[in-house]
Structures are given as C-alpha cells and as structure tokens.
Automatic annotation (TrEMBL):
Residues 5-160 form the Glycosyltransferase 2-like domain. This is Glycosyl transferase. SUPFAM superfamilies: Nucleotide-diphospho-sugar transferases. One of its GO terms (molecular function) is transferase activity. The keyword Transferase applies. Pfam families: Glycos_transf_2 (PF00535). Keywords: Transferase. The keyword Iron does not apply. Transmembrane segments: none annotated.
C-alpha cells in the first residue's frame, strides 16, 4: 500500500531534528512530506537535510497545510495518507499500526485519551478540554470519540478525495471531520480509534515546553474551549441540519 505521511509544521526546527529520523525508521517505506506553514526558524532546511520532501507555503494555518499535504498525496498516486504532527506529540512508533489498520479501514484516528492510552505528563487542562469536547461531540453526533482534537489521522484515498471536496477546512478541522462523517453515516461510527500515549513531558522542541507550561493551564483552557466548542456547534449546523433538511419529504 502506497502511503504518504504528511507532517504539517510551523517553527518546529528543534522538534524535527529529533523526530524525523524516528519517523523515517517507522514509516515502512512511506513517503514523508513536511508542509512548512511559513516557518521562520529553518524548519524546511532541517527537513531537507533529513531527506524528506518539503512543500513551503505562506502562513495559512494548520488546516491549509494538511489540505496541501493531502493534495500532494493524491498527486503521488497514494493509497492512503497519514497526518502526523511535527511537534513531538505523536509517537512515530505508532505509525506501523496506523498504516497497517488503513489496509482495511477508511479512517483511523489516534486517541491520546482512550482508556488504554498512557498519560505522560498530561496537563490537567488538556484532559479537561478533551472531556468537554468529547461530551459535545457525543451530544451532537451520538458517537463516543475519545480524542476529537487529535491530529494523528489516517485516511484511505477515496476518503481523502471526499474530505478535500467537502470540508470547509476551518481551524478545528479534526472536529469538523467527525461531524461531517456523522452527516453521511447511517450505521455506526466509521472511525477506527488507535490508542496512543498522550505525550506532554520531554517534548523535543522549546516551543512545546512553553506552550504546555503548567503555570498557564487555566488560561489555556479558557482560551481553547470556547473556540473548539464553537467549532462543534458550527459543524453541526453546517452538516447535520443540512442532512435533516434534505431528508424531509
């Protein structure tokens, strides 16, 4: 199965130095492409030095970088693509399982807050945020998705084609993806979850050490929850109410 691993980054040079050798070792021959979202710290140069493909774009945000990576994967005639964050939160050692599961599943999603997932230095606000968003997603879709915000996602080619033409590619694209799937699914949740560790300790980049400083835990929750809750609500209006209207006699 021809697979492309899409690594969206902005200013993750430190993390990429440690991460890319491990990704290459675990990717099983898959093509690795770093989509550089306007970095100013030499992230693209680090990626090139490690021998992976690089696509540069002006700073448009992570959703645009992911979309660009999916378009690249289709152009490479891939059978599947995996989105893998470049900040060190996703363990490269999970890539073989992800790629293996994509042989028989259209969509596989990493789950850092699955009951089977080890918690490695997870800040309280991250667990609380996930719990709140998980409850909102369940309220709107009826599905239990243990980690709606996780960006470690694998899609087979037909699903990539659908997603590219269907999503609005907002900031919270991972959440939008779930609600959109619910709008076109009749029997059960098609998302296969892959439990992975939640890694917040000893992250490879200085950027992440600042981002997850426990001193700013409450402020992070107050900033992120309203935005992600709004994303759930807006996606529900966009997709689920549309489906309801279409199904009316």
């Amino acid at each position: 199965m021809k697979t492309v691993v899409v690594v969206p980054v902005r200013d993750e040079a430190d993390a990429l130095e440690r991460l890319l050798p491990r990704v290459g070792a675990q990717a099983g021959g898959a093509t690795v492409v770093v989509v550089d979202d306007g970095s100013s710290d030499g992230s693209a140069e680090v990626a090139r030095r490690h021998g992976v493909a690089v696509i540069g774009q002006r700073p448009l945000g992570k959703p645009a970088a992911v979309r660009c990576g999916f378009e690249y994967a289709l152009a490479q005639d891939c059978d599947a693509a995996v989105v893998f964050d470049g900040d060190g939160q996703h363990p490269p050692e999970a890539l073989p399982d992800m790629i293996g599961l994509l042989r028989s599943s259209d969509i596989v999603k990493g789950a850092r807050f699955h009951p089977a997932s080890p918690q490695i230095g997870t800040p309280d606000d991250r667990q609380e945020l996930c719990r709140r968003i998980r409850d909102l997603v369940r309220e709107h879709t009826g599905w239990v998705v243990h980690d709606p915000q996780c960006g470690f996602v694998g899609l087979r080619r037909p699903m990539i084609e659908l997603v590219l033409s269907s999503l609005s590619w907002t900031v919270e694209w991972e959440i939008e993806l779930i609600v959109w799937l619910r709008s076109r699914t009749v029997n059960g949740c098609p998302i296969l979850e892959l439990p992975i560790p939640a890694i917040y300790a000893d992250l490879p980049g200085r950027k992440q050490a600042v981002k997850y400083d426990p001193a700013f835990s409450r402020a992070r929750l107050q900033e992120r929850f309203p935005r992600q809750a709004r994303a759930v609500a807006e996606a529900a209006v966009r997709y689920l109410q549309l489906r309801t209207a279409e199904e009316r006699p």
